[in-house]
Batch of 4 targets.
Target 1
Amino acid sequence: MLAPTSAADAGKRLRAARERLCLSIREVEDLSRDISLKMNAPDFFISRTWLGALEAGKLKLNIYRLQSLSLIYRLGLDEILSFFGVDIRDAGTEQKLVGLPHTYLLTPTLGGAKSSLVAPLELREKVDFGNTNLVSRMFESWGEIPVTLLQHMDWRNSLYGYIGIEDRTLYPMLRPGSFVQIDSQQTKVETDGWHDEFERPIYFVELRDNLYVCSWCEVNGSQLMLLPSAQSGKQSRHVRYPGDADILGRVTAVTMRIAEMRGL
């Protein structure tokens, strides 16, 4: 848990967040009014008087108004709450303090706009981030799913893969550490129909022993050719198909970093 902070200190930090965006208290009031109307919930409305008192450290929290501040200031709700000494990132470990009497289903949920994954040591020990893998397989033996990482994923209609940090098969189009969305309905290798390497279909392939590769593909009789990019420095591979390889689907979207953050 974060050390508790005073209402005055939290108010100062909220005021600094508002001023960083050059917003007046009246503008925050107007923006929150729009939110409350769209939500059809008056509790989301923030009056100038209320916000002024909050910034002065004279008021207790109202979760609906804090959500409005989160949307207006472009801060995650977890970050807003941390100003007041509440760290929701500890929720995964703190849930162990409560023993629920009934069986329940864990499902991915939507997190804050800027929520970040804080993985416990147990995850880093059990998940191999060096190799390409299916996201669902990466965490299947782990007791608690890191739902913050899995937000906005369409689990009913798509598979998701992770490109290992040591996998440069399709570099630079797919950089190591990327996440890819996979359409499991598209498992037949297309032989033409594209104009260049950027349009060429990319497939996510499962090999023997739960190994995975994300690459361009060609089928030649009973052989599946896994083709890397020219920049990768890797050689093409031939595997028996379908005996030693299974095409899980075509990659339809990718999320990846294109530059390293300074100071990391």
Target 2
Amino acid sequence: MNIRFSYKIKFVCLVILTLMSYRLLGQDSARIVNDITQLNPIKVNAIIRPTTTEEIVNAVKSNPGPISIGGGRYSMGGQTATENALQIDMRAFNRVLFFSKKDKEITVQTGITWRKLQEYIDTANLAVKIMQSYSNFTVGGALSVNAHGRYVGQGPIILSVKRIKVVLANGDVVEASPFENSNLFYGAIGGYGGLGVITEATLFLTDNCKVERLDTLMQTDEYKQYFFEKIRNDSLIIFHNADMYPNRYNKIRAVSYRVTRKALTVPYRIKPLQKSYSFNRFMYSIISESPSGKWIREHIVDPIIYAGKTVEWRNYEAGSNVEELEPKSRKRSTYVLEEYFVPVDSFKSFYPSMVTILKKNKVNVINISIRSAKQDPGSLLAWARTAEFSFVIYYKQGTRAVDKEKVKNWTRQLIDEVIKNNGAYYLPYQIHATPDQFARAYPNAPKFFQLKKQLDPTNKFRNKLWDAYYKQ
């Protein structure tokens, strides 16, 4: 054989093999499901993006399992996927199905984002009753984790839900409410996709209104009394939270938005989407990495931000974009959340212990937001078993194995402490709790698991959360 021809054949074969490997790599990467932290890449068998209920029903019927369900993927511990699953990506399942301005209610496909829902109802001067602080998340994701926000006198999102529809493991589409199939209603909301696919939700709405921002700086020890005297029973306050300043944790800035008739200082009805949040990212990098970053935030940045009076629409304040928190890269370090709930009377016993654990473990805390929530009406995996204070810890960690191990250690310490105070930790975050800690924080989990065995006997609906704690 001609030597030059032989080299050509080898070269062509090499090119073909290279192209095939790139194609396979592309196929593999296309089947990797991750969350916002980028800490939990999970390879699934296939991903579908349904737009109709029929597509979801057919997928559930035809796939023996496992099946996992994802929306915006803002949970942080693999709650939306498991290995070798059929991943149902709900983000194209996002239509408004029914809306009544008169009755103040809306029915949506659950892949819709809060932002899109807000844009729809704002023209009728209506607002969402309960949602997270950021509007990027999907309605279905919020229902799955039984989310909450900064709404005074409110609590978990289940309190604003009229009814839902769920595709079960056998393909049946079942409607559930507090009065019909209530076991499914109280199991699926806050059930992290373990019972089926929540495909539709009818939500109660409320009036949009103008709100004025008010803020007060105080000692951390003073906050509980301040909340009870000034905030808890003021029916005109819509949003409220208190930011605890690290690294000393002895100061709190309490921020409220109260109904007002004053003239607007912000012209927009909903927050415009920005092309870039580079300034926000720069500030978070300074706060998290500079030795004086946290002092700069407390004594320079926040006083500037909170100077003057702000009057805006309720929908504007509820329309923040999570992109403002997104770093330039999550390769070496990443921003993560954890959240802990304690009965209101346990405020002064829990927070000093929390601070001690964070300081002892040198956790790079950026902010701790304190919020309130009323008692859950009966969801099986309720995190608010009484009226609660929540402590939302926003921190930065490295992505190496040693960094992950450190986080697991101090997280378990905090979980032990919150359980001592008759509280709970929130499940959408990294899955560090031991099975015993999970069982103590969620004492009704056996009832949820019993319902799962009844509705999903082959354990079709799975993710990393239920892989960790659900044993058939």
Target 3
Amino acid sequence: MDIPKRLNRLGTGVFERNDLRKQAYHFASINGCLPPLCDLSLGSTDILPPSIILEAIAGGIKAPESSSYCLQAATRPFREAVAAWSERRFGVVVDPDKEVLLLVGSQEGTAHLPLAVLDPGQVGLILDPSYPSHRGGLVLADAHIEKLLLKFDQNWKPDFGSLSISQLEQLRLMVFGFPHNPTATVGEQSWLDEAMQLGLRHNIVIAHDNPYVDLALEGDSPVLLRCSGWREWGIEFFSFSKAWCMGGFRIAFAIGSESVISALRTVKGVVDFNQSLALQRGAITALTDFEDWPRKILGVYRERRDTTISALNNLGWEVPIPSMAMYVWMPMPSWSLEQGHSDEELASEILNQTGVAFTPGSGFGSGGSGWLRMALVLPVNELEEGITRMRSWWDANS
């Protein structure tokens, strides 16, 4: 079969490539004398959701309607819970029927959005680096992709002022997110305000991917719903995966402009049905009864961050201190760059030599080249043990 040009442009995802490498190492560790895999490559936490949320899901599974297809009308209790949460959390009143949409994970929403708001050849802008689904959705929609390079010496701030009037007039969609994955930067509200004002002036849909809204370790997370004009051209994506530790359940939601929500709902109407009512029941419980849960786990992530930074520094690896939970964004050591390694080669070597898996930064775009992402998704002692494993390899190469 001839491979469609669209798939060739899409390429292989960094998580898929990493998965193949981890699988090969895992099999080798079973059959040999290698230490077990220490997987710090995915933002999939070891922290469990509150037991009552799991009990709500388990109880809901027994209801006959949970095994049925779930169409839009059946999601109304979920959407009402989202609307109530939005008013409590942000002081923003939203219409559960016109401005809220259930998603099968925020990744699904950001990937489908370009199909909903762009014609082939129209222009969408993403940050570089950025989460892979931001680019992937534009590729699948046959959009022209513009990238806004983020720089370490500018604290990863998007320089919207670098966009010319001509570029802005051609843009029809801008996709970004703060707190930012992969750079672990919380960001500032003014950055979103500036983007939203550009959307209003130039008729650009502004899409803000915000699954880490409750996981800022320093400062306050920016929120698009607090920007003037989001009801005209904005949409914001939220998730249960990070803050409520429900990544495997694949449930999220979007709040946004009535016209943008309607367009995305139209795409979803021919692509997928909604998640089971049992999962929605657990999500409603999370929003209603465990709104403070994300704040309770911040202490866990703070300890993991501080301990990990100290251990890396003791190793000789100097890394910036992240302002958001879950990730450490690590520049490649100078000696590795001098040896001509790429970040993907370095990640592969660390895995093969020590059994510790990181994600190469270039998998998030060329702007991530020369960086590695570590996920703080294991207990402190296991994070320390993983870094200790790297000592002999580091000393032999540095």
Target 4
Amino acid sequence: MHVKMILPALTEACSPYYRPLKYSLFPPLGLAALAGYLPPDDRIEIQDEHVERLRLDDRPDLVVIECYISSAYRSYQLADHYRARGAHVCIGGLHPSSLPEEAAQHADTVFQGPGEDTWPRFLSDFRRGAPGRSYLSTQRSLEGAPAPRRDLIHQSKYLVPNSLVVSRGCPHACDFCYKEPFFRGGRSFYTQRVDAALEQIASLPGRHLFFLDDNLFADRRFAAALFEGMQGMGRLWQAAGTVRAALDRELLDRAVDCGLRSLFVGFETINAASLAEQNKRHNRPADYEQAAANLHARGVMINASLVYGMDHDDPSCFERTVDWAVERGLETATFHILTPYPGTALYRRLAEQGRILTRNWDRYDTRHCVFQPAQMSPAELEAGYWESYERFYRWGSIVRAARSKPGLVGTLRHLAYAGGWKKCELLWRPIIRAGLISRMRALLEAILGAGVAEPGCRTERADPTDAHRQLAA
């Protein structure tokens, strides 16, 4: 059987060269995980439209499409194309889980939620000639899941091919998060066994890893055991965690000792009322400064997630947020416009209030305002979003934040990481076009490891209050 798996481009132009760096970071690990369930005698291929042009003149027996909201129309276009060519088309992912009836207009089979239980069931049904129209995940477990078929991924096309996932979901339930529609019908957070996660890590070449888990630190006992097992592996790694995780000094020490060097942290907003509005009560802005200080004191760089457009945000929120981020020495920041994804509590609330302005899914990319904000116009919100990127990543702001780092190496490390991510963005285009992005991995490892003790070597920690004073100076 010929099986073709596709990750459609999350771009306006469906081009592999639009916003190239962001979309050349990680391979389509979800599709590779599904491929692991297929027998070795099947002909399987994975194509990622972000890094390659799709071949559309083939005739596979089975087509599997992973669909996000801002790639929905492109996903449907590809699904229609392959159905017309006689393929059985499956579609799954966040958007089909939220709007399965919409997806069903373009696909033969729609998957809702994770695929560990539904995908093997579908394959059995398909091979006996009786595939279902819809499969809803209800049994949640990573026990016995096969390893992702990394051999099907074009490793040289990605800056971070060693991405992995050792847990699913998140124990929290923020109103703007896709978690509710994707994980309905079963539990919304679960992990691998620690030994299985360590086996997966040990199988990956090189030093650098990137955990794509929503919250690697969510299960403290699992995380502590994982970090203990990673001791001595000599890895450098990045992940995502919460403010609460950054306040846990003991767990942070274990993470840093086994190679943590950069953490994506969902601060979201510095306004406590906005956090309560979105049911993100586990965040407290009063803790943010200590969380940042804890990470920086251990040599961990921070990528902050920051969201604009909540009902308590007025036009002053942009300048206040950027100033806060620069003053705390945050290395990078990812800004978002609040986006009401279908199926979420936020979407239901705004729809009931008549504030949804468009259902054009191409605009649901966190860069466009698709609803009526409470205290500003949509144009003001979009302008403030773009202005925040400009102000945070201007050289003056980068240098100002870098000066908060102790020592010359810390300052240069900050300049290299923040500057390389945004200020050198135009240089990434020819690097990617020339197929040289894999050559940049050594540089990434060097920046992550600069000025920090080797993984596995426990060292005395600086007092986080000292870092706090340095950041405030």
